[in-house]
Every structure is written in structure tokens, then in C-alpha cells.
Amino acid sequence: NVSKANAVKRLKALMHCERVIAFGDGKNDIDLFLAADESYAVENADEELKTYASAVIPSNDADGVAQWLEQNYQERIT
Predict the structure, then answer these.
(1) What is the pTM of this model?
(2) CA distance from start to end of the chain
(3) Phi first, then psi: what are they for 46, rounded to 5°?
(4) Helix (H, G, I), strand (E, B) or coil at 55
(5) What tens digit of pLDDT does each residue of 5-17 get?
(6) By the 8 A CB rule, do 34 and 6 touch?
(7) What is the tens place of the pLDDT at every residue in 36-49?
(8) Residues 16-25: contacts with CB within 8 Å, 24+ apart?
(9) 60 in helix, strand or coil?
């Protein structure tokens, strides 16, 4: 029963998280995206994964995850 989805569900319960935000680029992230409350695929991600994403962010080559965190982190913790 090992999967990214099961891991994120377990961490969410252990850490008492209200929400989980996931980032990914491959088909192996689909179950993670389904388990997360929000999910973001990088621009150069697998096309199928993008259909499961809340939104598409800039590519990993353009530091898309770092950009998203810089733009959104402070407003989400306040």
C-alpha cells in the first residue's frame, strides 16, 4: 500500500494539516494530486498530469515551484 497518495494522507493526519499542496511533473504524481487539496503541475509536466492539476505553473527550468512558493507562501500562513 505504498504510494505518494498514502504517504501524503498519513503525513496530513500525523501533522494535523488542514490542507496539502502538491507539486509534480510526471504520471507517477497523479495519485498524489488526487490526494492533495491543491496540486500544481510544472509547465514541462506530462500532459495527462496537467489535467489533474489545480493549475500549471512555470517549468522546473524556470524555478516554477520556487516562484509559486515566493508568491503564495506568506499569504497562506497568515
Answers:
(1) 0.87
(2) 35
(3) -55, 135
(4) strand
(5) 999 999 999 999 9
(6) no
(7) 999 999 999 999 99
(8) 23/57, 23/65, 23/68, 24/49, 24/53, 25/49, 25/60
(9) helix
Instruction: Report the alpha-carbon distance of residue 26 to residue 52 in Å, rounded.
Output: 11
**Residue 46 DSSP label:** -
Q: Can you tell me the distance from the alpha carbon of 40 to that of 72, in angstroms, rounded to the nearest whole number?
A: 13
What single letter denotes the amino acid at residue 11? Answer: L
Cell reading at 43? 509547465
Three-state secondary-structure class, residue 21: strand
Rg of the chain over CA atoms, in angstroms? 13
Cell numbers standing for residue 52: 489533474
